[in-house]
Amino acid sequence: MKNRKSQLGMLIILALSFMSYSTLKDKTVNLKESTVIWKGYKVGGEHTGTVNLKSGVLSFDGSTLTGGNFTIDMTSINATDLTGDYKGKLDNHLKSDDFFGVEEFPTAMLAITTVNGTNGNYTVEADITIKGQTESISFPLTLKDNTATATLKIDRTKHNITYKSPTLLETLKDKAIYDDFDLNVTLKF
């Protein structure tokens, strides 16, 4: 009788354990349908473009977002607001050591560390690593159906990207490139 109760107790514990973990799920991001659009600002203007995701996963407990990890293919950085020689020059410059140094650092990473919120409206804290330098950031994320959207503001100087930074080059303010750039992200899964 004691063995039977002990076996029954173990079955109940296993069933409860399975039920509590069965709601945890990772959802792989659809790389072809997802977009990352960057926008950089300079005195008197701005540039926009895209960069591709190499991989991405969002983690859920039931329908509640709990985490995620993403790899960004920095070799794919591309200006979309220019054409011809100007586009080629900007694309190559962004890939150079002045900016993202894609030969040495072909990928950037983002790992979600904390998620707060409900009903599809979240505040996300994450670590973003660009050029081997990690910065903790916070941003709002909206989740609806199978789509997550977010706008991240990144300070490039936290990642050792200081080319024509107005905080470092006081004499070149008329040619300065502002330190912050935006990533407008739409993830489909």
UniProtKB/TrEMBL annotation:
<feature type="signal peptide">
    <location>
        <begin position="1"/>
        <end position="22"/>
    </location>
</feature>
<keyword id="KW-0732">Signal</keyword>
<protein>
    <submittedName>
        <fullName>YceI family protein</fullName>
    </submittedName>
</protein>
<dbReference type="Pfam" id="PF04264">
    <property type="entry name" value="YceI"/>
</dbReference>
<feature type="domain" description="Lipid/polyisoprenoid-binding YceI-like">
    <location>
        <begin position="26"/>
        <end position="188"/>
    </location>
</feature>
<dbReference type="InterPro" id="IPR007372">
    <property type="entry name" value="Lipid/polyisoprenoid-bd_YceI"/>
</dbReference>
<dbReference type="InterPro" id="IPR036761">
    <property type="entry name" value="TTHA0802/YceI-like_sf"/>
</dbReference>
